[in-house]
Design brief:
The chain is built from ten helices and eight strands. By secondary structure, it is of the alpha/beta class. The longest helix has 23 residues. Bound molecules: 1,3-dihydroxyacetonephosphate. The site of 1,3-dihydroxyacetonephosphate (13P) has 16 residues, from strand 3, strand 8 and helix 9.
């Protein structure tokens, strides 16, 4: 199998009425754990990294590793820049060979968001890459800094936005938020349904950590074709590392590395099964 454009995975998810999992990675163990889970379940995935994470995990190091892992994988994998904030970062990702880029203009006025995404569309087309954008405001924050208030996507704006920009995937805000939810989220399935009825573009659900399996599946039935998971993988890696080190006087790097990969593998496997309606 191979490194593929994200659009191909979204089309196949649409045909099969499932969602493809987009898993954030920040080091080699995360890449290896995610790919091992996808291969075991023989299911395509998206490997992604958000611009705010590049301080910890530089694009020039992560990018080639993610792309190489995708190329040598037994399943199809798309490599995606999550929440691109600067046009230069989007360009860098495309130059490195990412097969998909997100430009997050969700905090801009609608018209400015449209203009910025049109520019990204043109840049991505030169590479045959997929484009994701966001409309409305997903809560929390993908990184440090101020947490955003949730602002649900307006369905009519979503239709206009997709028609004007020609994006391949649209991230919607329906009460979802990045990071761990303080209380169980109340997703606005009524809003999702309204968007899905008038927008043909595949829809993306951010802030997957903490959403229940039932809610995931309901969202998929209402047109969600890509689901982002970040915090749950970071937390699972940290938990497994802590568990391994507990009661040890001296840790062994190689065993620690295996424990970290295992933490991510377990989390990714669990989510792939939910998103693909496997038992
Ligand atoms: P979580 O950290 O809540 O899983 O969100 C992931 C995400 O949406 C990345 O863009």
């Amino acid at each position: 199998m191979a490194l593929v454009p994200m659009k191909a995975l979204l089309e196949s998810a649409e045909k099969n009425n499932i969602a493809v999992g987009a898993f954030s990675v920040g080091n080699m163990e995360m890449v290896m754990g995610a790919v091992a889970a996808a291969e075991e379940l023989n299911t395509p995935i998206i490997l992604q990294i958000a611009e705010v994470r590049l301080k910890n995990s530089p694009l020039e190091l992560m990018g080639p590793m993610m792309i190489s892992a995708a190329k040598r994988s037994k399943v199809d994998i798309a490599v995606h820049l999550d929440h691109g904030l600067k046009i230069e970062t989007v360009q860098k990702a495309l130059d490195l060979g990412f097969t998909s880029v997100m430009f997050d203009g969700s905090l801009l006025p609608l018209e400015e968001n449209i203009q910025a995404v049109k520019q990204v569309r043109k840049m991505a087309d030169r590479f045959g890459a997929t484009v994701e954008a966001e409309l409305g405001v997903v809560g929390g924050n993908e990184g440090e800094g101020k947490s955003h208030e949730i602002l649900c996507t307006n369905p009519d704006d979503a239709k206009l936005f997709c028609d004007e920009t020609g994006v391949d995937a649209l991230a919607v805000a329906i009460g979802n938020a990045h990071g761990n939810y303080p209380v169980l989220p109340q997703l606005r399935f009524d809003v999702l349904d309204d968007i899905n009825k008038i927008v043909d573009t595949p829809l993306v659900l951010h802030g997957g950590t903490g959403i229940t399996d039932e809610m995931f599946r309901q969202a998929v039935m209402l047109g969600i074709r890509k689901i982002n998971i970040a915090t749950a993988s970071f937390d699972s890696l940290a938990r497994h590392a802590l568990e391994y080190c507990k009661n040890l006087e001296k840790a062994n790097y190689f065993e620690l590395s295996r424990a970290m990969a295992e933490g991510v593998y377990e989390n990714v496997k669990r989510h792939i099964k939910v998103f693909s309606f496997m038992d």
